[in-house]
Target: VanZ family protein
Amino acid sequence: MHKIITIVSVTFLSFIIWVIYQANTGQHSIFFELVRSIPYGDKVGHFCLFGLLTLGANFAFKLKSYSVLSCNLYIGSSVVFLFVLLEELSQYFIPSRTLDIADLLADALGILTFSLITKLINKGSR
Model:
């Protein structure tokens, strides 16, 4: 089961990287049109994409965690957050992109929410 979760997570990450590449190079995509057709679609998309990536990463990393100031953080959540932070901040330097703090907030809320969902799933499976 772990292999399947890891393969699905890596495939999903590859999809996200492909979408980022399309946005960075100013290409058009059916996904961009879909997002524009939904109210707050961009923010909902950020929340869901990076939240689901977090869930997959947490299980791909076998729920490993570390402690910071007596708070346990999943390694998968931290890796996704670092990826998101670097990707969002890089948009400042890419002419076809716009650095948007609201996007970063939606990403962070998705990561936090799906980290809590990870914790609930882990508790329920014991």
